[in-house]
Task: structure prediction
Amino acid sequence: MDASRGVSLQSQSIWIRILSLVGRILLAVGIPLIAFYVLYVGFIFLRDSDAPRGIIALVAIVWGVGGVALLFWVFNGLVERLPVALRTRLLPFVFVGPGMAILAWYLAIPTLRTFWISLFSRDGPQPGLGFFQVLASESFVGLRNYVAVFTEQLMLQSFRNNLMWIVFGSTFSVVFGLLIAVLADRSSFERIAKSFIFLPMAISFVGAGIIWNFIYEYRPAGQAQIGLLNEIVVALGGTPQAWPQWVDIAPWNNLFLIVIMIWLQAGFAMVLFSAALKGIPDELLEASRIDGANEFQIFFRIMLPSIRGTIVSVWTTIVIFTLKIFDVVWVMTGGQFGTHVIATQFYRQSFTNRNSGFGSAIAIVLLLAVVPVMIYNLRQFRKREAF
Amino acid sequence: MKSGKGQKRLGRLLVNGTLLLLVVLWTIPTMGIFISSWRDRDDIATSGWWSVFPHRDWQPVREIDAKALGVDPNQVMEIEGVTGTFEEFRAGIETPDGKRVTWLGNKRLGRVEVQERVWTVSWNFTLDNYKQVLGGQDLTFTHADGTVEVVPGDNMIRAFVNSLSVAVPSTVIPILIAAFAAYAFAWMEFPGRREMFLMVVALQVVPLQIALVPILRDYKALNLNGTFLGIWLSHTGFGLALATYLLYNYISSLPREILESAYIDGASHFTAFTRLVLPLSVPALASFAIFQFNWVWNDYLVALIFLGGNPEFELVTQRMAAIVGARGQDWHLLTAGAFVSMVLPLTVFFALQRYFLRGLLAGSVKG
Result:
């Protein structure tokens, strides 16, 4: 009796096992298939549909965001059905995999690919050739693009302008940020003042370009000026100018563009400095006041040294940012009137001139410029023993 | 003691005064376009936006028919007690009693105005600029002199919806992917963990210019060029390193006991992540989200390259740049358009300023 029951139980459990195995396989194949099908239908709808804008936008948002969540859920479900040993090994990759794959595709591998393209003439390496054939082909130019980058007239001008951007832009952003942070700390309307200074950070460079174009707007002398700067200049007895386009004073006309970046970035510097200043212990400041130090001594001898680290990191951040400045120049002057910078040259060469070799060489030069910062970041990270 | 107090008060005045000056200086540019965007288009083109503030201006007192005066414009004339050439009268000649005599129009069909300097404001406000820049239809506009002009709309609404459908997924997708990755880095053991994280750290400062040419090639091969999916993925790729790093810093600092007790209760990593870690990380997620949203909304370069060819998908920044390029003198459109493009980021900024600042302090600055 007992034995037969055991057998029937066993056979039953075998059936259940087989059924559940089939079910698992079906689920394992079916769920991803359905998921992919749903995503695909969404994609086709988005690509081809004539539905009203609003609906397409809504579908796009739901499809894009939901799709990513769905994929994570499906892959997690699949891995969780696997035996424990395999599961613990695979699961981390379900979590970390998509992110790493995207990073590799969008940033890590492109650095190598861009370097490779930079070794070729305008159209890049010819497709369909083997490695050595490509190297032997006519389009392989070695480092000649780099020679051009560092010798061509317009490129040298761009380097000079970018240097001006970095020197004046970052310095004045930091100086104004620090000045405002120190003043705001002692003023009676700190919060409001900081909000107003910080507000331009929310504005796009295209928008900022329009705002400042309006300030610089030029009308011939004698007509009513509608640009604020020229109105002031005329009121003081000067002649109106189209300031950023004023080639006679090149390269100093770049300063009229650089002002825009200072206007945008000072708020960023201010916020970080303000937080750092609040971190200086009050006792330290009180003690030096009792010792008879005046406000300037306190600023230069105590505040500046205590927030040196913040100043360095803010400065570096703004320098990196300035190195890639593009939108504001592109919208305001298009690089004319001697205002090209590295990133506008990159855009012009890569996409207007369609000289991908030259453009890629410029991109690599940009990358090399940030390598020291990258190494510094990696060093700092290694010091954190926790990882 | 007393002089010390006085000095203190003077110091305070100096601090507040300088700060106020800087705040005003920083605000004037934005105020200029904001005020202009509500002004009549003819007014914008002929007078500065500051004329909405009370100022002294010449206003006509009476008008004289030039013909009735019987003067010869080709010679020196005497009108209303002042003498001058035609050119001088065109510019306006001031009379001893503070009035001004101005010749309007040409020599033959002119009229002469006697003007007086009075306090005035130019408050001819209108919604037309916004109507024209937002709508897609033609709009008729009547100039002050009665001529009617039909102007095409600029369809900012469409660009606005497009920007929204780019910005929302481009914000949520990288956060979701980065949060999963950050969780794995913080709470799981796997081979290559350290190397992968070093890659994340290193890639934070890589300029995105490096990727544009190769990625554009991939997109052309995959037919992703000019699609929403393509630009979402690009923004995801360019924002992911920073997102992962920031979220790792936050998630790895969550109290160990909470997660361990969840595992003991039998929670899988997935449940622990969705039920515990995500809700606990809301502050960090929010501050990165605001940053990424702002960054994507204000981005011009990435959109220009990956959505460039398709006017249907034009974003707000592209629309604005197009208006600058084609009609850089149409200040009534530029000012209203610039303001439309700023509305959303400014709202987000003022509504969620606390998170914005927190994100900044955590190092939300893109490479």
Remarks:
- The longest helix of chain A spans residues 2-48.
- Chain A has a mean pLDDT of 84.
- DSSP finds 16 helices and no strands in chain A.
- Residues 161-307 of chain A form a domain with the MetI-like fold fold (CATH 1.10.3720.10).
